[in-house]
UniProtKB/TrEMBL annotation:
Membrane topology: Multi-pass membrane protein
Catalytic activity of the protein: Fe(II)-heme o + 2 A + H2O = Fe(II)-heme a + 2 AH2
Gene source species: Cisticola juncidis
Gene that produces this protein: Cox15
Annotated GO CC locations: mitochondrial inner membrane
Source organism phylogeny: Eukaryota, Metazoa, Chordata, Craniata, Vertebrata
Pathway(s) served: Porphyrin-containing compound metabolism; heme A biosynthesis; heme A from heme O: step 1/1
Full protein name: COX15 protein
Length: 235
């Protein structure tokens, strides 16, 4: 399929992959080596040791998942005449585990640096917390749907917004059978779902911000919610 590829073009792809692997290994060493040192010095409490082991396991799992993902792009597919690409399922799993690893690392670090505020457990505060957790899950789902868009090159199907071509809902959104396949393998449906999830995420973040304005919150929490809204709008 790429018989006319020049050597510089191949080198560009090769170095992109090579640098990604080296960067991933550097991240693993930057985490595991200091963690082993802190453990040996006795600077970790028992609960923190559990967190460290879990995060170390996630680092190793992330690397293995990356190899498993790339492997799918090198397999011969005799029934396919499309450009070689990795499995969108494995790409989504690789991205999802990376997000979990990053979020867990950030959460652990901030928990050590910033002691939690002692706030009265009011009904409004509990609602805010539950809504924040729901918004987090929605954002995570939106990111995973983005991996399916990338894996299927679904972003190339329609380039207009808010409509997809001349329609709000494309004709081929349920073209595959069984219907469930469309969600994960139909480029049109994958792009459509990603748009809906993206809009829903921005709406949820905006609603979270507006709801937080009605509750007396510490300055740090207000800054976090405001930053979340700013990042969502930028995204």
């Amino acid at each position: 399929l790429n018989h006319d590829m020049t050597l510089p073009e191949f080198k560009f792809i090769w170095y992109m992959e090579y640098s990604h692997r080296m960067w991933g290994r550097a991240v693993g060493l930057a985490y595991i080596l200091p963690a082993a040192y802190f453990w040996r010095r006795g600077w970790l409490s028992r609960p923190l040791k559990g967190c460290v082991l879990a995060l170390c396991g996630l680092v190793c799992f992330q690397g293995l998942l990356g190899w498993y993902m790339v492997k799918s792009g090198l397999e011969e597919k005799p029934d396919s005449y499309d450009i070689p690409r990795v499995s969108q399922y494995r790409l989504a799993a690789h991205l999802g585990s990376a997000l979990v690893l990053y979020s867990a690392s950030l959460w652990t670090g901030l928990s050590l640096l910033l002691p939690p505020h002692k706030l009265p457990e009011t009904k409004q505060l509990l609602r805010l917390r539950h809504y924040a957790h729901g918004t987090t899950a929605l954002i995570f789902l939106t990111a995973l749907s983005g991996a399916f868009v990338a894996g299927l090159d679904a972003g190339l199907v329609y380039n207009s917004f808010p409509k997809m071509g001349e329609r709000w809902i494309p004709d081929d959104v349920l073209a595959f059978s069984p219907v469930l396949r469309n969600i994960f393998e139909n480029p049109t449906t994958v792009q459509f779902d990603h748009r809906i999830l993206g809009i829903a995420s921005v709406t949820a973040v905006t609603a979270l911000y507006l709801f937080s304005r009605k509750i007396p919150l510490p300055r740090r929490t207000r800054m976090a919610v405001t930053s979340l809204l700013a990042v969502a709008c930028t995204q």
